[in-house]
Amino acid sequence: MLKKRDLILIAVGIAIVLFLWAAPEESTTRVPMDESHQQIYDIYHAEGKKAAEKVCEQCHNEDGVPFPKDHPPKYRCLFCHKMKD
Q: Looking at the record's lineage, which domain of life comes first (predicted)?
């Protein structure tokens, strides 16, 4: 026989699954695998994500490739933009 604690745990588990099921599809663009971004891929594979993110602002800035107005803080690029496999 299930105890009240077990039923609460099952209900929470079902709620989590339903919440995740309703999540929107991934809409953030991936980092292109092209000549312009090759340096990012090289650093990413050699030193990791945080080291690679430091290079993004060399091109993505007000004078280069500007961010959209509603773009979140730019110092964590690879938190949202995934690398292509």
A: Bacteria
Give the integer Cα–Cα distance in Å for 85 and 72.
24
- Helical (H) or strand (E) element with 44: helix 38-47
Per-position pLDDT tens, the chain of length 85? 889 999 999 999 999 999 999 998 888 889 999 999 999 999 999 999 999 999 998 998 889 988 878 887 777 899 889 998 7
Tell me how far apart the alpha carbons of residues 38 and 59 are, in angstroms, rounded to a whole number.
13
The number of CA neighbours under 13 Å toward the Cβ of 16 is 6
Please provide residue 12's backbone torsions phi and psi, each rounded to the nearest 5 degrees. Answer: -65, -40
